[in-house]
Specification:
15 strands; Aminotransferase class III-fold pyridoxal phosphate-dependent enzyme; aminotransferase; 36% helix; alpha/beta; Aspartate Aminotransferase, domain 1; single chain; 2 domains; binds pyridoxal-5'-phosphate; transferase; Aspartate Aminotransferase, domain 2
């Protein structure tokens, strides 16, 4: 098949997601091929994939085991109705997730993305309280700078103003402060300060009253918000407060799930047990769209034991593509690889190289903070007074020219390299980013 070259007309026919489309039309960034830890542009320019796609391809691109599993599945069962019918791989995958997840998160609802997982989790929390005879427990608490996708539940609980402000009425949700503190700047790994920030929950409860609150939803560390990591005791404190006030705790592990922090889940890293856990992205190594919501046995049993005839639907929710057979095949193959002995140890070893390499950029112009945990990190830039988000996008564009795809969001450059990198790859990525930063600072006259 001949290669397709978009012209001006096709530029406007594809309205890109979460993109400044007008800028893209002037400076299109296209990839047409990917292999291992690299992307390639249509004219053959090689780029390091420094964010594993969008945090979702830790096992690298073109993974042969996953491709073979999808192919085999395609030959057996391409689609199965998601309602009232199922197929063996869906159960195999649910069993595997239940076995991998911390504690008794033994019941899995499938969906197709992190956003759907977030909204599914929020609906599940409300349904649980209603089934327990407490329907007034319907409000939610999220956290400033939290990201839970783009559906109405997710933007309500999410704490990124720009993602909410043009969409009018949202769900009833209140927000904890974010966990970035100036005194923690340039911390390596977990920051020291900030456990007390969990106590802000008490101030919200004083006004809203726990009897009205269904759940607190947070990411173990805020990924899209700029790899903002809470201090060691913060999530334990949040768990204790939720227990004291009879509030569910939901962890959004769409980024932290499946090894990104060096443990299988963020819950394992912090040794804190949520009642509901959402995941997506690396679940299929980004190859097929899939998300999942893992619920505790307490929640599942409560919904299964509702009074009424057994032909009634216990949780009226689901998607045409819930537990899609091809996604299940991709997920099973990905999780098998992620569970290989040594893989997470390798992540922990690479994380040390990553920590050293990213922190070497301290002291470069415009660098205001650097944070890292496992194989995730961010470089926070000073804001341009007139155009606050300009530096990050311009530096990312320069990195592209230097052969590194770098994700920017707000005033952060974010990094989450594939687990299959070599230590030299990580050093090379940051050497090129450092060059881009210095070149850019020179062009704007910053010493
Ligand atoms: C923590 C978190 N939750 C939810 C989402 C939304 O996932 P999706 O883009 O697959 O809808 C993301 C995406 O980055 C995320 O980081």
């Amino acid at each position: 098949m001949a290669a397709f070259h978009p012209n001006r007309q096709s530029f406007s026919s594809h309205w890109l997601a979460f993109t400044s489309n007008r800028r893209f039309h002037q400076q299109p960034k296209m990839v047409s091929h990917a292999e291992g830890i690299y992307y390639y542009t249509p004219d053959g320019h090689q780029l390091y994939d420094s964010l594993s796609g969008l945090w979702c391809t830790p096992l690298g691109h073109g993974n042969k085991g996953i491709a073979a599993a999808i192919n085999t599945q395609m030959g057996q069962l391409d689609y199965a109705p998601a309602f009232n019918v199922s197929h063996p791989q869906a159960f195999e995958l649910a069993d595997k997730l239940a076995e991998m997840a911390p504690g008794a998160l033994n019941h899995v609802l499938f969906c197709n993305s992190g956003s759907e997982a977030a909204d599914t989790a929020l609906k599940l929390a409300r349904a649980y309280w209603r089934a327990k005879g407490r329907p007034e427990k319907s409000k939610f608490i999220g956290r400033s700078k939290g990201y839970h996708g783009v559906n109405f539940g997710g933007i309500s609980v999410g704490g990124i103003g720009g993602n909410r402000k043009i969409y009018g009425q949202t769900l009833d949700a209140y927000h904890l402060p974010h966990t970035w503190l100036p005194e923690n700047r340039f911390s390596k790994g977990l920051p020291e300060q900030g456990e007390h920030l969990a106590d802000a929950l008490l101030a919200i409860l004083e006004v809203q009253d726990p009897s009205n609150i269904a759940a607190v939803m947070v990411e173990p560390m805020a990924g899209s918000g700029g790899v903002i990591i809470p201090s060691a005791g913060y999530l334990k404190r949040l768990r204790a407060l939720c227990d004291q006030h009879d509030i569910l705790l939901i962890f959004d592990e769409v980024i932290t799930g499946f090894g990104r922090m060096g443990t299988m889940f963020g819950a394992d890293y912090f040794d804190v047990q949520p009642d509901i856990l959402t995941c997506a992205k690396a679940l299929t190594n980004g190859v097929m769209p899939m998300g999942a919501v893992l619920a505790s046995s307490e929640i599942y049993d409560c919904l299964m034991n509702q009074p009424g005839d057994d032909y009634l639907i216990e949780f009226p929710h689901g998607y045409t593509y819930s537990a899609h057979p091809l996604a299940c095949a991709a997920a099973l193959a990905s999780l098998n690889q992620l569970q290989q002995p040594g893989l997470l140890n390798n992540v922990a070893d690479l994380a040390k190289v990553f920590e050293q390499a990213i922190h070497e950029l301290k002291g470069l112009p415009l660098v205001e903070d650097i944070r890292n945990i496992g194989l995730a990190g961010a470089i926070q830039l000073t804001m341009d007074a007139k155009q606050p988000l300009r530096h990050a996008s311009e530096i990312s564009a320069l990195c592209w020219k230097k052969g590194v795809y770098v994700r920017f969001g707000g005033n952060n450059l974010s990094f989450a390299p594939p687990f299959v990198c070599e230590p030299e790859d990580i050093r090379e990525i940051f050497a090129r980013v450092a060059e881009a930063l210095s070149d850019y600072a020179r062009t704007i006259g910053t010493p």
